[in-house]
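With this grant's support, we have settled on a layout for protein records. An illustrative entry appears below exactly as we store it:
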Amino acid sequence: MEIHVISYLILSTVMMFAGIYGFFTRRNLLAILISVELMLNATNINFAVFNRYLFPGVLEGHFFTLFGIAISAAETAVAIAIMINVYRNVRNIQTDDINEMKG
């Protein structure tokens, strides 16, 4: 049984909109990071799916997906390091408390 491209695109769209919703509604920096990761994974699904269905003989889409995963891992490491430094200074990782660090 083969899964059609529409199923993958619906999954990717749901993931993207869940990430956008989480990014704009959450106040916790870690929840915002998870939302960004969800959006990046939605784009990785699109890369792999469009490569599989449009150009099944080549691997560019899969390489873009692997590159996206590597970028996502590096972005997560940097973001968590920033969150640790914010927590050390403010003792909280809510976005409302970050404005206190500007002064």
Remarks:
- Residues 1 and 31 are 36 Å apart (CA to CA).
- DSSP finds three helices and no strands in the chain.
